[in-house]
């Protein structure tokens, strides 16, 4: 048992390896890959969701909430083209668990916005591989992420073929908002609409009044 746990933590140490090339890798059930250039999160088509987590342990290695950042780029004609979300997760015990919380929130937000076949991008290769497996009891990484993976896979917005891994340098927007969540974690929720048009529905305002439990929103902004 102890060996299995230690092996899990070894996986966690490689979840954000800087040796990965600056390309997005499609992680699918048969482990085949499709390389797709990602430049500044702007050259992808359709509805695209980027997610990331910022985490550090509390005093005496206690569990602590992670900062979650989600950047959504919509391809349809809507009130806004971009949505930025900073939120806090429930207490997480490891960086990998924090990343899994990030993807869970991303799938929840995609459901709320009723995105059709959204593509999810993350810079954690272990999570991208684990969440697309058929059997969560055989997922790579620490066992603590298995309940979160099961929850993610139940989401209507989730499709295994639409899970992508990318280098962290291409995930700067989600990363920024994950760090922002920790920075403003003691403040009240901030909602901002930066769209030029004032008519129509505002996704930022809609999300701010809908429960995304167990997450706590700290900043929601549309543009």
TrEMBL record:
<protein>
    <submittedName>
        <fullName>Uncharacterized protein</fullName>
    </submittedName>
</protein>
């Amino acid at each position: 048992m102890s060996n299995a746990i230690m092996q899990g933590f070894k996986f966690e140490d490689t979840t954000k390896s800087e040796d990965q090339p600056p390309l997005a890798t499609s992680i699918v059930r048969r482990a085949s890959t499709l390389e797709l250039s990602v430049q500044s999160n702007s050259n992808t088509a359709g509805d695209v969701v980027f997610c990331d987590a910022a985490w550090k342990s509390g005093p005496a290695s206690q569990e602590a909430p992670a900062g979650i950042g989600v950047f959504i780029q919509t391809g349809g004609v809507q009130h806004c083209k971009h949505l930025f979300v900073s939120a806090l997760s429930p207490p997480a015990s490891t960086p990998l668990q924090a990343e899994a919380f990030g993807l869970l929130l991303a799938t929840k937000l995609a459901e709320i916005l009723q995105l059709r076949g959204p593509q999810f991008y993350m810079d954690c290769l272990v999570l991208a591989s684990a969440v697309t497996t058929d059997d969560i009891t055989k997922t790579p990484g620490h066992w603590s992420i298995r309940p979160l993976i099961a929850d993610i896979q139940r989401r209507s917005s989730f499709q295994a073929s639409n899970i992508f891994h990318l280098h962290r340098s291409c995930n700067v927007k989600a990363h920024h908002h994950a760090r922002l969540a920790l920075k403003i974690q003691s403040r009240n929720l901030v909602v901002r609409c930066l769209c030029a048009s004032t008519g129509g529905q505002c996704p930022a305002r809609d999300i701010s009044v809908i429960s995304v439990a167990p997450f706590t929103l700290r900043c929601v902004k549309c543009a």
